[in-house]
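Design a sequence for this backbone.
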């Protein structure tokens, strides 16, 4: 009984720490998102560097230093190109870096970890920067992404703890349940709709289908990091954020969600002959006045 009570107190302290840390982080990130422009891009440049550093630290036993340095070099070039206003160059450097690293690693060690790490860090940097841009539509779009991912995290956590039930992927993440998975999708839909309603707009054709896909991507991203950590027997990706671990632990779902949403809108933008920016396309296609 005492052991159970002690464990319950520990869990409550951890939950309070997670909540406080999450609130502080949310305030900082939302403020920098509201500012937008270079401030937001630099935020995601630093996050990208943290993502790669934590990824390479987890996999250091399988990633030679020369491969790690090459990936960091390409990532810095991608960031520098994008911050200089050269989107196509940044995208080209990212693709080139991933392909060259993958070929080199596979030929030398039958591995592609550095290439994966470069994509894992570079793609969300470009995706989040392009989703935001310097427009009101971009601000709304990024806040919707945050609402979707944070809604998935919070609702999945509480639905999983309160309902329990069958495990989602017991070999990958023993604590995740199907109740949490469904609760996470529900939370994403509710919070995303609330953001849209607060902005004075209405969901358009395909909005909820897109949000559900983004919510699923968020939970897949969470599971993907769990696979990585279980493979290398690591509990957290780092210790920077109290109650959450590392930066990668905090943005694992956001990586997959942002890249999926950006990729979807990029395809629509391409088919519309680049008439509008990605945020404006989202506003026109998926929202109603």
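Sequence:
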């Amino acid at each position: 009984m005492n052991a159970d009570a002690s464990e319950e107190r520990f869990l409550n302290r951890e939950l309070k720490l997670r909540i406080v840390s999450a609130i502080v982080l949310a305030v900082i990130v939302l403020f920098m998102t509201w500012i937008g422009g270079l401030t937001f891009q630099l935020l995601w440049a630093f996050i990208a560097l943290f993502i790669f550093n934590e990824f390479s630290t987890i996999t250091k036993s399988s990633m030679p230093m020369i491969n790690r340095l090459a990936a960091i070099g390409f990532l810095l070039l991608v960031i520098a190109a994008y911050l200089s206003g050269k989107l196509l160059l940044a995208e080209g450097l990212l693709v080139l870096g991933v392909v060259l690293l993958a070929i080199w690693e596979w030929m030398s060690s039958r591995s592609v970890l550095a290439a994966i790490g470069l994509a894992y860090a570079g793609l969300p940097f470009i995706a989040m920067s392009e989703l935001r841009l310097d427009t009101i539509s971009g601000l709304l779009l990024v806040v919707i992404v945050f609402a979707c991912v944070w809604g998935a995290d919070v609702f999945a956590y509480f639905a999983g703890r309160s309902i329990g039930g069958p495990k989602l992927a017991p070999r990958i993440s023993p604590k995740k349940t199907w109740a949490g998975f469904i609760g996470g999708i529900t939370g994403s839909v509710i919070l995303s709709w609330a953001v849209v309603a607060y902005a004075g707009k209405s969901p358009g054709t395909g909005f909820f289908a897109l949000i559900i896909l983004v919510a699923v991507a968020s939970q897949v991203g969470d599971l993907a990091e769990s696979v990585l950590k279980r493979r290398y027997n690591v509990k957290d990706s780092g210790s920077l954020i109290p109650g959450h671990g590392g930066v990668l632990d905090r943005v694992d779902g956001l990586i997959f969600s942002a890249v999926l949403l950006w990729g979807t809108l990029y395809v629509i933008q391409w088919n519309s002959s680049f008439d509008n920016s990605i945020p404006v396309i989202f506003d026109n296609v998926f929202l109603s006045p």
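The chain has two domains: 36-132, 135-289.
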